Structures are given as C-alpha cells and as structure tokens.
Amino acid sequence: MDTKAFKRSLQHSENYHRKGFGHQAEVATQLKSEYQSKLIEQIRNNNYSLTRGDVTIDLAQAFGFCWGVERAVAMAYETRKHFPTERIWITNEIIHNPSVNQRMREMEVGFIPVDGGEKDFSVVISGDVVILPAFGASVQEMQLLNDKNCKIVDTTCPWVSKVWNTVEKHKKGDYTSIIHGKYNHEETVATSSFAGKYLIVRNLEQAEYVADYILNGGNGDEFMVKFAKACSVGFDPDRDLERVGIANQTTMLKGETEQIGKLLEHTMMKKYGPLELNQHFQSFNTICDATQERQDAMLSLVQQQLDLMVVIGGFNSSNTTHLQEIAVERGISSYHIDTVERIKSGNSIEHRQLNGELEITENWLPTGKIVVGITSGASTPDKVVEDVIEKIFALKSTAAVV
Ligand code: SF4
C-alpha cells in the first residue's frame, strides 16, 4: 500500500478529524476538575517538596501528563460532546491509565473487543465515530475504518506522527528502519505499519547482535528466530541490513536510543567508510521532549537521599516502566503502582516488577522519618498522584500514633 498517499487522502476526507471540535474551554474546565490536584500544585510551588509529620515527599521536577496525552484526552471529551448520540469507539486504551480509561467507559465510549489477541472490528458500523489514541493506530486499521465509512477522530500525538514521517523517508530512500521499541507495543505496531523494511530492536543488547551481524555475518536462521515477531515480512538479514535508518518508540529510554543510533552509525562507518556513510545510514532525532524531560527529572531525583521511590503509572505504560528502571538501576527500593488501591492498609504494597510480575511487599514504609521520591508516567493524572501521597501521609501518621 502507498501509505503516504493513503494518509494524505484520509486527511482530506470530511470523515477525518484531528483538530478538536471547538469545545476546548468547556472541556478544559471538566478536565481540570477531574484530573488536576491542589495538593500537587502546592508541592510544585514549594520547590517540589513537602513535609508532613515524619514524611517528606520529593517530587520529580517533570512528571505526569505530557501535552500529547492531555491533548488526546481533551479531544476524546470533545468528541463525546460533539457527537452526543452517536456510538463512539476507541481502537485501544486512549492512554495507558486505568482511571482515564474508566472515565471513557462511563462516557459510553466503547473499546474495540479483542478476541484471541486480535481486535474484532465487526462491532463497528458505518456512521460510528472511532477515536484513534495518542500513540496512534496502524495504517491497516485506519484503512479499515475508512472503508467502513466511520468518522475518524485522530488524537495521535504529533511526536508519534514525526516518527511515522521518518520511517516514510527511510522507505523512500530504500533504507531498512531499525526501530528501537517493543514489537508488540501499539505505538511500534503503528510505526512499523508505515515502514517498508523494518527490524525492531528491544534494547542495546539486541542492537549489538545486529551490529555484529552487519560486520561479521552470522547464522541467518538464528537471526530470524530471534527477530521472528520483530521484522517485516520476507526480511533477509543478509540483504536488508546494507542501508539502515534509525527510528524509535517515543517512550523508550532516551540514552539507550542514542546509544543504539551511535552504535549503528559506527558499524556502518566501519563497514563502508566515512565517505559512504550517508548511503548506508540515516538518523533523525525523534525522541519526544516530554519523555526526555521526565527521564532527566528522574535522573536528578535519584541523586537525592531517598528512602524509597514510588513510580505511578499504568502497568502497560512503557515510559513509566523506564522511570522505574532508572530507580532500580540505582539500587533504590522503588515501587511501581498504577492506582492508590495497590497500597494496602497494614503496611503492604502490591507493585509491578520490571519482569511484569506483581509482587506484594510487606513493611514497605520504614518507621521514623522518611523521604519518599515520587514520579509518574506521562499518562498519569495528578489526581492519582495526590491520592498516593495522601495515603502515605495517612499510613505514616497512623503508625506514629500506634
Ligand atoms: S510521551 Fe511524547 S510522544 Fe507520547 S504522547 Fe506524550 S508528548 Fe506525545
């Protein structure tokens, strides 16, 4: 499919909306009351720190809702207002946050059912309204919805669209897109749908394997087993790694994306020499500012004297997991939770580990004075962060009384 031509024609269709519907002011008030927090405002104004009783909370200097997420949620609210009686669907979670997704359900926005890992679009009929989430949707999904004559509300973050434009450029120049991301993350699924030839690398270790293959060759069968789910149809490592371009899932660890870019640049330079480099390697900066700011703020926060960290965000949120990784790498006791309900009375907490498993830790709040670092992922409303902080204050004040 000529994905570029399809996108262009879709954008000219009267069924396609990507700029809201003129209800911004109304929606802004509603969002403020549902998702913002006076306590968080107070902590921000107090140099990101607040002490109550034995507890000092140190907040990261950038955390929570990014503008891309705020924009997507606002557009979803506007969509409901603009189409009060139509059936509205969303192709995926609007963002990776359980409370926001729950609000969507309350507003009677339906989620496309998933059956055996496949989305079932048969529920969608002509005239329905379908929202595409902040991390986008694959070009095949867009085409299907367009063919069904749906009204499409596209909330894809412009930063994600920028990555799509990058892989389009790779395709035009016959470069294979090396995408730093998770092959099954919705954003990367969408990005790869716009790419020509592509290979998705999860981390630096996988990129090193690819770089070694480029320089020294290797076992093609082993390569294909390793990347079976993470490459384009018909991919051949002996043919398709001669010209490569870098792209990324916008929420990956910034430092790792940069390292992977440098590694492949050096690899191509070594193999083809500096004069030929541009013929074999392309790179554009597609790391989103919000991800960068949150990771930088986390790196500063973990330099402080903290007794523990709480990282708040959806369990399938990639950017939140990366914030947690930063704390774990520094050896800090850090708990990734998605809602305040994970904090149980009786000093125990249910939290997600980096391997995805849930664990319950008892006595997680130490006795006496403590300093707790707090951050949250780009999909987490301040209100959720407030609930967590209030719970910690309450638990510690009860412990002090006991
Ligand atoms: S994290 Fe970045 S790319 Fe993702 S929605 Fe937010 S601003 Fe957009």
Verbal overview:
It is globular, with a radius of gyration of 23 Å. With 402 residues, the protein is of the alpha/beta class. It folds into 3 domains: 28-66 and 290-401, 3-Layer(aba) Sandwich (Cobalt-precorrin-4 Transmethylase, domain 1); 68-157, 3-Layer(aba) Sandwich (Rossmann fold), CATH 3.40.50.11270; 174-287, Cobalt-precorrin-4 Transmethylase, domain 1. The chain has helices at residues 3-11, 24-35, 38-45, 67-82, 98-106, 139-147, 158-172, 186-194, 204-216, 220-226, 254-272, 277-280, 289-301, 318-329, 382-401, and strands at 16-17, 49-52, 55-59, 88-90, 109-111, 114-115, 118-119, 129-132, 151-154, 176-180, 198-201, 244-248, 281-283, 308-312, 334-337, 343-344, 348-352, 358-362, 370-376. Bound molecules: iron/sulfur cluster. Iron/sulfur cluster binds at residues 66-69, 134, 157, 159-160, 250-251, 288, 290-291, 319, 378. Residues 66-69, 134, 157, 159-160, 250-251, 288, 290-291, 319, 378 line the site of iron/sulfur cluster (SF4).
